[in-house]
Design brief:
The protein contains ten helices and 13 strands. With 294 residues, it is an alpha/beta fold. It has three domains: 3-69, Arc Repressor Mutant, subunit A, CATH 1.10.10; 85-163 and 270-289, Periplasmic binding protein-like II (D-Maltodextrin-Binding Protein, domain 2); 165-268, Periplasmic binding protein-like II (D-Maltodextrin-Binding Protein, domain 2, 3-Layer(aba) Sandwich), CATH 3.40.190.10. Helix 1 packs across helix 2.
């Protein structure tokens, strides 16, 4: 049984006449009659009483009509849904972020633009560190992630590098250096540096340590912080200082100040990583994130 058989049957049932039904669907009356006979033979029942003045549904025909009358509309809806999915206009997208990337203006703009352009895609967001994000994308638990690449294992993934992000010093508001417009890291050589452990965020860790080394000293590593928010909170508690991506300054937490670094600004790279075979929905997101779709 094919969908065209259902359409032919419904046309005859609604017109009550083979000739009028044939004219309505644009085929000859003899081929239409043969198609209905083929359908009846397949079902093993008579669907119509053939009358001199037209055609009338049998009891079996009325039962069949009640069961199939919505099938053409359902098929149209299914076709539209399939076409939307093929264009990436429906479905789902699982997206991951690092704690600092979620505050990045470009990342936020990408997500906002995508939601406006593709409102029927179910978007779910996950925040964790770069190392875990890479693993989850590689294993298929996430479709894509904004992360800091650094020493993270990205083998087997597609890497889309975004603009690097400047890093700034974060100090307790009571620190003497907080009064200046910029900070010379050499003046902070005796401070404890609160950083996210390298195993969780190697890009930011390495950029911070390298900035200290360029200023002529090896940083004293203080209390580690697993997330950027907790890192800034520890600085506010006067347990040390830190160096973080500038987007963290948007938190505006009490007890800390963010200051540019004098003598050369360290950069934290940010990338969007995906699997090797992105879905249509993900392809659309990548285009937006890379600025090739408005």
């Amino acid at each position: 049984m094919e969908l065209r058989h259902i359409r032919y049957f419904l046309a005859v049932a609604e017109e009550g006449h083979f000739t009028r039904a044939a004219a309505r669907i644009g085929i000859g009356q003899p081929p239409l009659s043969q198609q209905i006979k083929d359908l009846e033979a397949e079902l093993g029942v008579s669907l119509f009483k053939r009358l001199p003045t037209g055609a009338e549904l049998t009891e079996a025909g009325r039962a069949f009509h009640a069961a199939v009358r919505n099938m053409p509309d359902q098929a149209k809806i299914a076709a539209v849904q399939a076409q939307k999915a093929a264009r990436g206009e429906s479905g789902s997208l699982r997206l991951g972020f690092t704690g600092s990337a979620v505050l990045n203006r470009a990342v936020q703009a990408s997500v906002r633009a995508y939601r406006r352009r593709y409102p029927d895609v179910e978007l779910s967001l996950t925040e964790t560190n770069s190392t875990h994000l890479a693993v989850e994308v590689a294993q298929g638990a996430l479709d894509a992630a904004f992360l800091r690449p650094g020493a993270v294992d990205l083998a087997g993934l597609r890497i889309h590098d975004l603009d690097g992000e400047e890093m700034v010093a974060v100090l307790p508001v009571s620190h003497p250096a907080a009064a200046g417009e910029a900070v010379d890291l050499h003046d902070l050589r005796s401070e404890a540096y609160i950083l996210t452990p390298r195993g969780l965020g190697p890009t930011v860790f390495d950029a911070a340590v390298e900035a200290c080394r360029r200023s002529g000293f090896e940083p004293i590593l203080g209390q580690p912080a697993p997330q950027m928010l907790s890192l800034v909170a520890l600085v506010a508690a006067e347990l040390g200082v830190s160096i973080v991506p500038v987007s963290m300054a948007r938190l505006a937490l009490d007890g800390v100040v963010f200051r540019p670094i004098a003598g050369g600004t360290p950069i934290a790279q940010l990338s969007l990583v995906t699997g090797k075979t992105p879905s249509p929905a993900l392809q659309n997101f990548v285009r937006i994130a890379l600025g090739s779709e408005g």
